């Protein structure tokens, strides 16, 4: 886990956690699944709902420098040191005592400094039908995140994890049906989401 | 609570006072410029006169014509710039057991390259300070001057460490310290032996910079020094000792009381230019080993609303080497340009060294918890607590 970690938890609740992304790691995309494996507790799964880059220090703000990237690197070498990327993740699933994945909030939040890694395709496939996590996403969205855009990203990830053109369509259709029920047959909204998936 | 309404009338008087002050200052600046020019033309004779008159005030020592100015050469690139700064938690009379804390940063930038920057700070907790024993007093009553002196000493030795670690063969380097290199504040602790030891330790470090061939400089923002003005006061006959008489007598009014060096040199220097280099006459300099005595120049730092005048201090071996002096001038100027009026490396060093109120509180909480867990009882007095969180 430590080896493929992209960052560490720096704020945590049972509903969501914030992770700081390591300087050398690539930040995970909006709408990707990540996992945390707290010591002595089953793994937790969350969806990246917000990616943010800013200053480490709340008293200091980044300002426009008017320099080329080379000049900036050569003459203002501290800038990169003072910036960090954080991701906010909505907690949506956890592993049960027998290794089964439960699409519900975990009993405990992760610990601060727990490692965070991207979910593998296999793990994303395991977060499958009947897609109960979609209900949590739609009915209790993070108020700062446009939920439909997050749903678009989630559906794309489901499609990709099942092989895209080679086998991605049936699970995508199943997820779309689940979503349709959740949206109370609001076809226009559903169409708007689905149009953006493929 | 501050009632702004009550301050209205007082601010009006303040405004009037400022306006008068400004008029007086313009007249003083005009006379000071004339005196500087007068001194410039016969600087060697004037320096001899100062040396033999020995005025009581600290008078800048001339090493070259004093009204000279010099534009900045191009800063070398690549160049290594290292800087340190420090902050402290002073001993608190309301805390038991007594201690103090120093937090000293180290910054090293390899400008002109994409090599990684060094930005770090090291805290040290002092509760068995050997020097304090000399005071024959408990640690909680040791003067803040001693804590500051120990912090300054640590800043300089950390600067030496950063410079020797970060230097790259064949690449020029400038080591920047914050504030003055003249330890005048050490005097006044009423403990001559301790003061001597502190000065010896500080100058030992200065000598190591020289032995390593490192260009050391310090930057004083908004300097309040008057050594150049005192020279002009001597030249103008304002001091207790008289200057040699000359055929074309300079004007003798207004007196230059209250005028600072930067007020004079701000009118002489163009943006980016530096003044002539002067030797400091500070008495404590007499105790610095030969060659480590401090010289200084003023630098006009361009910036918003006309910029400001900074004072750059260098040990004599830097002042004596034109190439090192040029390197310091060019580097400090570029640093100030990038840092919007204050050297960038020093401001980053400050950011690393500063202990914020929330961090200070967290430190006290940690310390109290550790002591409580060890069965050593509560540490903060009620007075300190009530200051931290006043109750309604």
Description:
The complex is a heterodimer of chains A (198) and B (392). With 198 residues, chain A is an alpha+beta fold. Helices cover 32% and strands 25% of the residues of chain A. Chain A contains seven helices and seven strands, in the order ββββααβββααααα. In chain A, a hairpin with a 3-residue loop joins strand 1 (5-12) and strand 2. The mean pLDDT of chain A is 93. Chain B has 392 residues and is of the alpha+beta class. In chain B, the strands form two sheets. In chain B, strands 1-9-10-11-7-6-3-4-5 form a nine-stranded mixed beta sheet, sandwiched between helices. Chain B is globular, with a radius of gyration of 24 Å. Chain B starts with 7 loop residues before the first helix and ends with a helix. At the A-B interface, helix 1 of A face strand 4 and helix 10 of B.
Q: Helix and strand layout, with pairings?
A:
The complex is a heterodimer of chains A (198) and B (392).
Chain A: E1 5-12, E2 16-21, E3 33-36, E4 44-55, H1 69-75, H2 78-82, E5 83-95, E6 101-102, E7 115-118, H3 121-126, H4 132-139, H5 147-161, H6 169-182, H7 187-195
Antiparallel strand pairs in A: 1-2, 1-7, 2-5, 3-4, 3-7, 4-5, 5-6
Helix pairs in contact in A: 5-6
Chain B: H1 8-41, H2 43-53, E1 61-62, E2 69-70, E3 79-89, E4 100-111, E5 118-126, H3 130-133, H4 144-166, E6 173-178, H5 192-211, E7 215-220, H6 227-235, H7 261-265, E8 274-275, E9 278-279, E10 294-301, E11 308-315, H8 316-319, H9 322-338, H10 344-353, H11 357-373, H12 382-388
Parallel strand pairs in B: 3-6, 6-7
Antiparallel strand pairs in B: 1-9, 2-8, 3-4, 4-5, 7-11, 9-10, 10-11
Helix pairs in contact in B: 1-6, 4-5
């Amino acid at each position: 886990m430590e080896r493929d970690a992209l960052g560490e938890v720096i704020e945590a609740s049972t509903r969501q956690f914030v992770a700081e992304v390591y300087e050398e790691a690539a930040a995970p995309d909006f709408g990707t699944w990540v996992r945390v494996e707290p010591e002595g507790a089953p793994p937790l799964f969350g969806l990246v709902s917000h990616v943010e880059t800013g200053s480490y220090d709340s008293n200091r703000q980044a300002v426009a420098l008017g320099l080329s990237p080379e000049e900036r690197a050569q003459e203002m070498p501290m800038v990169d040191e003072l910036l960090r990327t954080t991701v906010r993740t909505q907690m949506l699933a956890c592993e049960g005592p027998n290794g089964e994945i439960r699409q519900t909030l975990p009993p405990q939040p992760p610990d601060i400094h727990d490692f965070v890694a991207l979910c593998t395709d296999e793990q994303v496939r395991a977060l499958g039908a009947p897609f109960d996590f979609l209900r949590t996403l739609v009915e209790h969205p993070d108020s700062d995140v446009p939920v439909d855009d997050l749903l678009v990203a989630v559906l794309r990830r489901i499609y990709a994890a099942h092989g895209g053109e080679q086998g991605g369509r049936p699970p995508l259709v199943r997820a779309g049906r689940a979503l349709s029920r959740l949206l109370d047959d609001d076809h226009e909204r559903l169409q708007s989401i689905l149009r953006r998936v493929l | 609570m501050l009632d702004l309404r009550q301050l209205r009338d007082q601010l009006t008087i303040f405004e009037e006072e400022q306006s008068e002050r400004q008029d007086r200052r313009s007249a003083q600046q005009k006379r000071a410029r004339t005196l500087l020019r007068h001194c410039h033309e016969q600087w060697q004779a004037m320096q001899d006169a100062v040396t033999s008159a020995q005025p009581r005030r600290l008078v800048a020592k001339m090493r070259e014509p004093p009204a000279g100015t010099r534009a900045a050469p191009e800063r070398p690139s690549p160049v290594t710039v290292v800087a340190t700064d420090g902050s402290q938690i002073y001993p608190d009379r309301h805390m038991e057991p007594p201690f103090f804390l120093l937090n000293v940063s180290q910054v090293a930038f390899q400008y002109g390259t994409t090599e990684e920057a060094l930005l770090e700070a090291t805290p040290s907790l002092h509760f068995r300070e050997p020097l304090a024993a000399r005071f024959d007093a408990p640690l909680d009553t040791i003067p803040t001057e001693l804590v500051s002196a120990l912090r300054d000493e640590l800043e300089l030795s950390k600067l030496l460490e950063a410079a020797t670690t970060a230097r790259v063969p064949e690449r020029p380097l400038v080591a920047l310290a914050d504030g003055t290199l003249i330890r005048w504040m050490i005097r006044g602790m009423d403990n001559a032996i301790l003061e001597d030891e502190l000065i010896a330790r500080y100058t030992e470090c200065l000598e190591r910079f020289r032995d390593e061939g490192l260009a050391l400089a310090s930057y004083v923002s908004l300097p309040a020094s008057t050594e150049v003005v005192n020279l002009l006061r001597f030249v103008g006959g304002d001091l207790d000792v008289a200057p040699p008489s000359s055929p074309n007598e300079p004007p003798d009014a207004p007196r230059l009381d209250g005028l600072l060096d930067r007020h004079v040199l701000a009118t002489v220097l163009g943006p980016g230019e530096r003044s002539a280099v002067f030797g400091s006459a500070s008495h404590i300099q007499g105790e610095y080993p030969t060659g480590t005595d401090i010289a200084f120049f003023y630098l006009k730092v361009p910036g918003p609303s006309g910029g400001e005048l900074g004072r750059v201090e260098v040990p004599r071996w830097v002042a004596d080497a034109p190439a090192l002096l040029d390197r310091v001038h060019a580097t400090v100027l570029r640093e100030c340009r990038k840092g919007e009026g204050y050297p960038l490396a020093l401001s980053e060093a400050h950011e690393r060294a500063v202990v914020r109120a929330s961090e200070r509180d967290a430190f006290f909480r940690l310390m109290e918890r550790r002591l409580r867990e060890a069965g050593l009882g509560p540490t903060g007095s009620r007075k300190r607590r009530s200051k931290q969180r006043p109750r309604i």
